[in-house]
Structure formats: structure tokens, C-alpha cells
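Course exercise 7: structure representation. Students receive a sequence record and must write out the corresponding structure in C-alpha cell form. The form below is the worked example handed out in class, using Heme chaperone HemW (410 residues). Read each field label carefully; the graders check that inputs and outputs are placed in the correct fields and that the protein name is recorded exactly as given.

STUDENT ID: A-19
EXERCISE PROTEIN: Heme chaperone HemW
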Amino acid sequence: MPSVLPDGEPMPEDGALPATALAGAERRPLGFYLHVPYCATRCGYCDFNTYTASELRGSGGVLASRDNYAEQVVEEVRLARKVLGDDPRAVETVFVGGGTPTLLAAADLGRMLGAIRDEFGLAEGAEVTTEANPESVDPRYLAELREVGFNRISFGMQSARQHVLKVLDRTHTPGRPEACVAEAREAGFDHVNLDLIYGTPGESDADWRASLEAALGAGPDHVSAYALIVEEGTQLARRIRRGEVPMTDDDVHADRYLIAEETLSAAGFAWYEVSNWATSPAGRCRHNELYWRGADWWGAGPGAHSHVGGVRWWNVKHPGAYAQALGEGRSPGAGRELLSAEERRVERILLELRLAEGCPLELLRPAGAAAAARALEDGLLEPEPYGRGQAVLTLRGRLLADAVVRDLVD
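STUDENT ANSWER:
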């Protein structure tokens, strides 16, 4: 979750949504994202809305403490119940992200989940995920997570090479994420993800292959692999600007992606989104699929984003300001935007084209349809789905996904 919030119109103090946002809500899936903004240390590449203890000291006081954070999220879940009114939907997915959610006690994460269960109910078979840093959990903690209702976990592995982890300022040691997968399986987690990053300065093809092999050897049923993006204002960006470490170019990123596709496919994983692979449909991250398909979700926590029925809003960034708003009975929303039909059409293309199922060609305007025909001729779209009215990226198309999307949205 990027730290910079967009511009938008003011959010009503009671968080009320226009009636148009709730129309037909019963036909759309509903999920919850719970943001935990705390980290033990700041990674050099991270631009997310997160805070270490030293960064919060003196800037939020007691309000920004981890000790009472769970109760603040519970209050926002109760606000969500008031705003959504008699919405009959049970929640289908819950995703706790950060930051490092597992810096909180498992009981605190359970209280946050319990509020969703009490206010909305969880659908049968609901997916309940938390992110975790490998150094922040142990077998007992993982068992406690299962006891309070979590059934999916995502570990930030990033790399199996110590020198790569050092550039990223990751604090875990190689081998610990793989051990975490085994501990999670022992605790009863059926679905386990490992997050990887490729293109870190100083990483070689051999390093990347070693990371993929180590991840596969651990036995997860889901792997996410993201190209490193160097965000302005981060420690890594400053190091690159000073010439301390080299910048990785796009050709290297493309080569690493091809290595990932080859290695993961050979191990029985199939891509279902450009940066995500799973061993089966059941292993996919259903919560992320809500985002990619434009469903409804409520994001609770500082800086969290939400979307319901074409209305998108975002919370104030700082944990102290977030706590103060809730303590005063106000919505923590900082701003919102009402998406037009055209904006929603464009977003569907942007997001659905990244999926293995693709996006309907009927979404395209004439210029976009002409671009799709050219992309087909250039080997960027699959012929068989195209004949059925779907734009589906080929492997080469995935490498050029951003450029293809730009053409298709006119």
C-alpha cells in the first residue's frame, strides 16, 4: 500500500456512501483488508505506509501505540457495519497486511477478525490471510493464528541469497522462510504463499534461480514474484543515486521473469495473474482476485483504501490521526472519488488484462479494438481466447503488459 494518498473530494464525517454505491451490493463479493502499519525496521526499498517505533515516538503518543491498535480496527469495522447498513453479504475474504501484522499478538489479530465475524459474518469457506515476516513468527504463534481463524499465510521471502537480502535491508536469514512454510503446514495452514523479488542490484541469474528453487523446495502452493521497483524517497533510491549500488534495467527484469515462468511451470505452478502463480485454483489468492475484478472491499487502518460500488476512498495516513478520528466518532477517511462509467471501464481493462482469463474484447473502444488486433498479429495476445472474445496475454505479452494495456485503453 503506497504511502502517498491521492487527491479527492472530502469524506463525510460519518463515512456515508451515496445510494448508488450500495445498489445491487448483494450481487457483489465483499472482502476486508486490515492494515497493520508497524514494522520492527524499515526495509530500504519499502515505500508503504508503515512506521517503526522510533518513527512514531513523539508523533502520535499513546494513540499510535501497537498495544491498543486492535481496538481501533474493531471500531472501524463497526463503522463499516453502520455505513453498509442492512447489507446481507457475509465476508468472503479477509487479508491482514502491512507492515508486519505478526508484530501484534495473535490474539489481537483474532480480535480484529472476530469483529468482522460478529458484524458481518464470514461466508462458508472464507479465505482468511495474514502476511508475516519470517523472523516474527514461531511454531506456537502460527498455531495460535490457526486457532483464531486464519487459514492462509503469506511469508515475505524476497530472496534466498544473503547479499541480496542485505541490499534490501531484510533482516531474516536465508533458510528461515522455508522453515516457516514447514511450521505453517504443521500448524494446519492449507494455503501458504512465498513472496519473491527479482531485479535487486547485485542479484545474478544464478541468485534468482537459487531463490526460486529454495522457494519451491519449501512446498508452498502459491508464489508471488515481483520486479523490484525503486521508489523515490527510499533508502535504496538514495543509494543508487549516490552510485553505491547499480540500477537493474528492464531487460534484466524480463530475463528474470522468463526464468520464473520456466521454473515455476516445470514445478506444476500455473500463472493466474502476471506476478502470481498457484498449484491449483484453490491455491489462488481469492482476496487479490476481488481487487482485480473490481469487487467490493473495505480497507481498515491508516492509509487503507476501500472500494464499494464505484466509490473509492482512503484513510488518513498517520496512526495517531487515524486513532484520533475514531476516538472522536468520525470516519478516518481522508478523501474519496466517485468513479465514472468510463473510469470503471478503463480500470477493468487495466486489471483484468493481467489475469489468465483476460478481459472481454467488448470493453474496448474502436481504437482499442484495433490495437488488440495488432497485438494479436504481434504475438502478444492468445489466438484461441481472442476468437471467443477475450484478450489474453501470451508469455511475450506478459513481458510487455504495461504497453499492451496502454494501447487497449485508447
